[in-house]
Write the structure tokens for this entry.
Amino acid sequence: MVLVIAEQRDGKLNRASWEPIIAAQGLGGPVKVALLGQGLEAAAAELAAAKVDEVVRVEHASLEAYTADGFVQALAAFIAAEAPAHVFFTHTYQTRDFAPALAARLDRALITDVVAAKPHGDGLAFTRPMFQAKVVADVVAEGPAPHLVSFQIGAFKVDALVRGDTAAPVRAVDAAVDPAAIRQRPEAPFQEAKQAVDLSQAERIVSVGRGIKAPEHLEMAKELAAALQAELAASRPICDAGWLPMDRQIGSSGQTVAPKLYLALGISGAIQHVVGMKGSRTIVAINKDPEAPIFEIADYGITGDLFEVVPAIITALKA
Amino acid sequence: MKIAVCIKQVVGREWQLRLSDDKTWIRDQDASFELNEPDAYALEAALRLKEQHGGEVVVCSAGPSRVVQALREALARGADRAIHVEDGALASADAFVVAGALAAALRDEHFDLVLTGLQSDDQGFGQVGVVLAERLGLAHSTITMDVAVEDGGLRVKRELEGGWFQWIRLPLPALLTIQSGINQLRYATLKGIMAAKKKEIRSVAAPADLAARQRIVSLYFPEKSKQTRMIAGAPDEAAKELVRVLREEARVF
């Protein structure tokens, strides 16, 4: 059995949680999905639409606000009770915060940032980037089960989810948490920039790179984003220069996204950027350099001058 | 405050990566090596905490003999002394083995605070810091943007996704993984380089009983997976065609 740990905040399901469920469905065996927190009825009901054997709400008042210690305690006990062969996560910041401690406490393998699972001998090998994605590694877990695996956001297309004919059964369990053993005391999450946006949830993204040349040209990109009902994002040099806030940055040092449409304007396609967006369903690249590596991963490309092509696209969209 | 900073030495970003004959590791005999960039931010954060609160900064690295070079660089930037867990096999070891080696070296020193970078630029597990916290029984927090010492404990700013942040209080001793880019790195001065020559680098053996929990069975270069359709023509025509295919074929809006 594969146990998938889904993620929520304030009762709202993280869209990236569908991806490890798809990975688990692909293995063909039983799948259970667990959600940790408090007040999880709505998010659990949403998860139950997937073709899975069971959805479990692992609830405790001390899990309402996320803490690494709370999650490690609750999951260590829950995993011991369920005895899955694998435990799948999404490789979110939250997973990165607690999963290594959970693996260490259970003394079980944790393979992180995985993009695919494939048969290897009697078991599975997990594919993940290494050396900043210059190479790909097939990695196997050593030691007894369960093996913990976190999947890179965008590794699976959300529309590949298999839905059930009827809703999966939902069960609630009281999490085994000793509140006195939680050492982290979290304060309420906050956003620094007023318009800060969670780009990982965006359906369409217009992203700009060095090719935009000057901050005044961002207006054109904003206009295109508005016409597409897209969010505006950028590669690192644009954010480092202060032309857009840091929370708009896509890539290894920014956010990882997998929207339906990713339109890259004047982005060369350095690996640090590509790792953050290559899971997008449709990638469009517009660049004056026909050799730009971004074209290697693009579905559609236009070689040309941004300052001519982008206004033409805006006009075409409005037509 | 007695602070340990765990650093890794990794192959240089500019090095043209080559695979070993059995394709389970890299052929790095002729590689250049450098301090893992995320760890440089952890070191800088430690040096700043020492400047504010006094104490000692000890750098620790688990790796083959070459990592002395990275330790020396950290000493030149201002760390007080270094611990080298020396073992050739640590160059390609998994996160559990590296964390186990570091834990054995750090345990008896009873540090108030242990800092690590977010992840390494080579294998990029993003695990060693948090596994080390568990092995040492320390409270931890990750992807740290800011560290304040308050009331005998820490108040740290943690980065969440999508532009969200959160302050967390932690008791000491604690371990933090530091987000890259949170501070301006200092570089070694000539005086620092000279001073580093007199600083202690203590070499310790890695424990013999560390069990790996993962193994690379194959390493290969990524393949181009997509067929790109290039849309030619004058800007107006290309734009119209792009909008058409996005609507009718890709159906993204």
The two ends of chain A are 52 Å apart (CA to CA).
